[in-house]
Amino acid sequence: MKMITFKLLNIIFYFKKTLPMSFTSLGLSPYLLKIIVEQKYEQPYPIQLKAIPAILKGKDILGIAQTGSGKTASYVLPIIQQLQKQSASKNRHVSTLILVPTRELAIQVNDVFNLFVNGLPEKLKTLAVYGGVSINPQMIKLQGVEVLVATPGRLLELISSKAVHLTDVKTLVLDEADKMLNLGFKEEMSKIFSLLPKKRQNLLFSATLSEDVNTIKEIILNNPLIIKIDGEENKIDLINQLAYFVSAERKGPLLRYLIKHHKMQQVLVFTSSVFKADVVADKLRINGIKASAIHSKKSQGAREEALNKFKSGKLNVLVATDLMARGIDIKFLPHVINYELPRSPKDYIHRIGRTGRAESSGEAISLICEEDQHHFKIIQKKMGKWVTMIDSSDFDLKGY
Ligand code: AMP
Asked: Is CATH 3.30.70.260 correct for 233-391?
């Protein structure tokens, strides 16, 4: 007993040192956190931040998210944790069923389970079953399985040969539900639902919310938490984010230093007011940087002219407010600078989403004063990503 406590304390100490707070605050066990560190998952993705605590509480989930969003780990981790607390179910009575459209996804999801179950104190058997291969080996392997990842057709075949039973299922996951419906599995899915116990947790993931997915949602989900991860949030990983800690009076010189020193050719600078946009653009021009402000107080013609010059490279810097920037769509914008932070995290994501477009990486820089620090922490927490902060107090800004 003492040995186990000691081991656990060691693990807790290890992950506290290595993981940022955000993963440790989701309610996952030290064993899982240790594997997360080994997998080099530095921070939870937005879907994981939202889904993991809710699933651990037993809530149903509707996750609108694509591959690449980290959706698999968002349900695999809490499911493993819940299973560790339950006693093993009867032989051939699986307790978690994950329905997927294809053999590839079945293998992939099962691999993620295997990644996280190795090293757990209680053994947990998982299996992927799918059509197009011989059924016999799958029937044999189903002995003692707790987590079954299956394509609908093959699952029904295995059920009719009594190789597996669904009467003890506590958690149902539908992954890529839209694809499953597009592939024509609607009837099979309904049949499977009818074989499940009424009381269970349901997790539905889909890249899109079609009419058919909505129908499934109505049938199986009970007061779900809806998590929508749009493309913009997914794209964040492509963006190199940086923040500079700076005193208020050095903000202007630091902006000019960064633009000149890094020879930035096309920069979108954000301010929080029209007045500030003008002041910043004026100061840039006085210091020899080709810049213009665009905002609602300028005529349509003046705005269009500035935008065209910016697009063609005649103007290096455009200073804009959030409202104005919504209309700016440039294929590859290499730099976005937040001279002032936006009020909402959503606007922050929208702003930095101007860069790193079309699969190209871009850079988003934020200038952070003492009074912005707390707000910037909230933005990062909402985004699910921590930004490297550079202290600029010893930068020589003379002449900028
Ligand atoms: P998925 O959307 O579930 O297919 O996951 C996409 C990829 O992201 C997979 O290769 C995962 O291993 C990886 N991944 C998932 N969560 C994280 C995380 N928090 N940090 C880094 N990589 C992750």
From this structure: no
